[in-house]
Amino acid sequence: MNENIEELKNKYFRDETPKSRMLFISINLFSIIIWIFSIFMILKNHKKDKMFYIIFISGIMVTCFFINRLINHIELDNSVDMHLGADYRICQTGPDALSKEEIEKGAVGLVDYDCSINAWKRITSAGTGYRTGAYYITYTIFALVLSHAKLTGKSNKTITQIMRYLLLFGILAITASRYCTEWVLSVFPLTLSSNFTIMMSVLASLLLVEIISMF
Questions:
Q1: Domain range for residue 121?
Q2: What's the pLDDT band for 47 if we cut at 50, 70, 90?
Q3: Which of 103, 104, 111, 199 has the largest CB neighbor count within 10 A?
Q4: Domain count, the chain
């Protein structure tokens, strides 16, 4: 019986954990690199005042958050998903859960379709949430900057740089969230969209502080 189960696993399922882990690691490494680069560019010509250190400390905190995510994926135990894909133990079970009679009839696994529908709804809802969040952050900050410039006639390189990366991260977050349409594979663009939305939220807060400090 055990030999039959192992044969079914090897024939109909494959272990996606190592590939998934490498993809998550790559996503978080990319997020760390682009975040550090953006903070560096924002601070490059900024004088070392209070705002400089606020931006610097915020940059370090977000970097540490992404590094923590990276470490979590590196330390992930391969045995969690066994021989099945990333949705194993969520909405499907492999031959381990089948009876001898079911295996003899040709069954290789069980799928819970109610679970699949709920999971699909959660994924699409999360993707829509990130997309909507990125849109409203971009729209609100853009309107704020335009209003500030019109009322005061003031601007500076820091505001311009922060706006530049806010818009870049907004485009990337919205684009990534549009690819949340492929069940389990949606987890990857969802993670990327989540990271860019976090970057946008922090930059939006820094931009607000910078504008207030100009009054």
A1: 17-80+112-213
A2: confident
A3: 199
A4: 1
Q: Please check whether residue 72 is in contact with residue 5, taking contact to mean a CB–CB distance below 8 angstroms.
A: no
Q: Find tokens 């409203």 and name the residue.
A: 136
Return the SS3 of 92: strand
pTM of the model: 0.74
Token pair recorded at residue 57:
């400390």
Distance between CA atoms of residues 23 and 196, nearest Å: 16
Contact present, 123 and 188 (Cβ < 8 Å): no
Domain-embedded: residue 172: yes
**Is residue 3 in a domain?**
no
Q: Show Cβ contacts of residue 122 under 8 Å, excluding neighbours closer than 6 positions.
A: none
* Nearest-angstrom CA–CA distance, 128 and 179: 11
Q: Which residue do the tokens 């706006």 mark?
A: 163
Q: Would you say residue 166 lies in a domain?
A: yes
Helix (H, G, I), strand (E, B) or coil at 109: coil
> Is the Cα dihedral 41, 45, 46, 52 positive or negative?
positive
